[in-house]
């Protein structure tokens, strides 16, 4: 009933909701138009939860008192301010956003997304370009977790991506997988380009890391190496059986990282960076063989540190910006979860720990 | 005479000169040890000129009054402060540095670089990781140009790269080419991976852009498109004959850039971003075909804008961090300059304009 035809034609990229002058794409925009009336190719979602990007949430924690002792009220106020002033959740420091979960509330007549009213979905495009209005002041959120219960609405464009949440799996489990589903799909594509590649995954015990390890093995890796920050995580990753070798190293220490990967059968033909801390570029480059590839999935990656780091080391490596979109990525990642008990085990343990925290 | 054996063994990456705790690589370090005594695998250069990275110099201009009306003294003071406090020239905002020209002053007995005392050289690794001491207060520099006359010394590590400046070409010409020699070499490698690629070079009239256009054609591109910001530059690029099509567009306007490239025979299989202004990520992605590749050479590139931009557009493109090092890059770029009159013409015109400015 509220579908609206406007004098301004909609663009599948969402350009028609950008309020900046001159116009930029929604992701780069300072401010989006959050009107609830839809253009004909849009979809409106009733939001139930936001899932903040890990790098973004950590920055907020650091700013407001530090991890473990942060002021949750201050973090909540800042998130509300960002969304109110920008019309989207995009951390001004990290540039990153997150994703959301909700239920389809209205579908414009020209929407190409194939969604129906009542579908429970998650967005696979970033919150940084998704028009968002929070209507409950986030009162059910204590500010101490990336998982943010929320009532409000969001808008999807013609070229957005959303996945329907499967019925046969716990929804938190599906969501944690879909949140990082770009990583395993791109890892698989790169690993297939080598013959029996040695693959090192930095942060191999985490969500995108464990999926990337499973993807590398399925894509024909000759050897997989998981690098984790401490022994507890190493034990969990060993128990999951996702990597041929599991080693402990601080990824911010380039020499330690190089030595750990080399000692486990490296250097790597493909190094996948999945840790959300700054300063891992140098070590990742040093851990990679000549003519190898580094894939940076962490939003904490610095473009100039990577570019100048490789140049400064005279390292002939290909460095990829981890594109979160590969066609079929959500289905591929869900397939890994269903097929690989080790992946499921790690995800379930992580969810249990988060619930208990 | 001053070669020094230390209790601290030198590392080819220069780690032994990093003063940060815990240790990081020299490029990521806050502060480097600039002692003039050499470790056995090092080389000391008597500096005659610094060549500041374009993105860095523009940031300094903006900070101190804006392009064309900047306070040169303030810019000089800031550069001196940075080098004095960090032991290297690395702009804290852009993270970038530049290169230097000088004469080899001393060669450690174990240096693998093949240099001899008296060689006139340029560094092909960034100033961001090169120990540097300025000894003349930059008094010959007015703060209004990226070219900084300078007396002082710098140190090269075992794994650094320096090129001897050819005798048969004007040295300013050789230097401008070597400054950006990573771009054409990587462009050629990527273009060779496609069959008769359509290649768009954003900033095709600039130094790295014109070399990348020449490299793309030599590497078998089916069509080359140069995108420039205004008609004057378009005329110069057309006269140089380096591109099949030359179009004018503002690279920060994603829709304008997409339409310009599409109208000139795109979308591109390979898009090369060579403009030193922020905000070109979205347009570059939109100008690129599915399964195409975007190579980001600009230090003004934002990692998160690229990663989230592609995801937000559901764009299946490969995005490369422009690695400034490819084996043989300096010789390859000098070969393009010698073989292609159009390249030489653009470089000479640019040098003449800078000299006249």
Could you please describe the fold and organization of this structure?
A six-stranded antiparallel sheet of chain A has the order 4-5-1-2-3-6, with helices on both faces. Chain A has a six-stranded parallel sheet with strand order 9-8-7-10-11-12, sandwiched between helices. Helices cover 34% and strands 21% of the residues of chain A. In chain A, helix 10 crosses helix 11 (341-356). The longest helix of chain A is centred in the last third of the chain and has 16 residues, at 341-356. Chain A has helices spanning 54-63, 72-86, 171-179, 182-192, 207-218, 231-240, 254-263, 281-286, 303-312, 329-339, 341-356; strands at residues 43-52, 98-107, 120-123, 132-134, 147-156, 162-164, 198-202, 223-228, 245-248, 268-273, 288-296, 318-321. Chain A contains eleven helices and twelve strands. Chain A is of the alpha/beta class and 357 residues long. In chain A, helix 9 (303-312) links the parallel strand 11 (288-296) and strand 12 (318-321).
Which characteristics define this entry?
homodimer; 357 residues; six-stranded antiparallel sheet; six-stranded parallel sheet; 21% strand; globular; disordered N terminus
Strand order of the largest sheet of chain A: 4-5-1-2-3-6
Q: How many beta-strand elements of chain A? A: 12
Main β-sheet description of chain A = 6 strands, antiparallel
Give me the oligomer status.
homodimer
Q: Strand pairing plus helix content of chain A: what structural class?
A: alpha/beta
Largest interface: A-B, 61 and 61 residues
First and last CA, distance of chain A = 43 Å
């Amino acid at each position: 009933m509220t579908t609206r035809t406007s004098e301004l034609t909609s663009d599948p990229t969402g350009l028609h909701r950008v309020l900046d002058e001159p116009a930029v794409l929604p992701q780069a925009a300072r401010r989006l138009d959050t009107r609830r009336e839809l253009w004909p190719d849009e979809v409106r979602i009733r939001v139930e939860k936001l899932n903040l990007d890990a790098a973004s949430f950590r920055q907020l924690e650091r700013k407001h008192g530090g991890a473990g002792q942060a002021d949750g009220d201050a973090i909540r106020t800042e998130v509300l301010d960002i969304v109110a002033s920008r019309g989207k959740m995009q951390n001004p420091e990290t540039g990153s956003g997150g994703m959301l979960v909700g239920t389809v509330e209205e579908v414009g007549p020209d929407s190409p997304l194939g969604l129906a009213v009542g579908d429970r979905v998650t967005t696979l495009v970033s919150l940084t370009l998704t028009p968002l209005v929070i209507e409950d002041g986030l009162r059910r959120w204590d500010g101490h977790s990336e998982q943010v219960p929320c009532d409000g609405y969001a808008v999807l464009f013609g070229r957005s991506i959303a996945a329907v949440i499967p019925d046969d799996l716990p929804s938190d489990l599906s969501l944690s997988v879909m949140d990082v589903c770009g990583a395993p799909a791109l890892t698989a594509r790169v690993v297939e380009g080598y013959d029996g590649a040695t693959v090192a995954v930095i942060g191999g015990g985490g969500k995108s890391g464990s999926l990337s390890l499973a993807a590398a093995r399925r894509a024909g890796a000759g050897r997989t190496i998981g690098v984790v920050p401490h022994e507890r995580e190493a034990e969990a990753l060993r128990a999951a059986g996702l990597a041929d070798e599991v080693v402990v190293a601080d990824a911010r220490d380039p020499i330690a990282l190089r030595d750990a990967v080399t000692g486990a059968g490296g250097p790597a033909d493909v190094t996948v960076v999945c840790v959300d801390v700054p300063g891992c570029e140098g070590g990742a480059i040093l851990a990679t063989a000549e003519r190898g590839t580094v894939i940076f999935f962490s939003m904490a990656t610095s473009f100039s540190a990577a570019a100048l780091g490789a140049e400064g080391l005279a390292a002939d490596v290909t460095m990829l910006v981890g594109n979160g979109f590969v066609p079929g990525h959500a289905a591929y990642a869900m397939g890994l979860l269903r097929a690989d008990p080790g992946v499921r085990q790690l995800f379930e343990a992580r969810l249990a720990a988060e619930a208990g925290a």
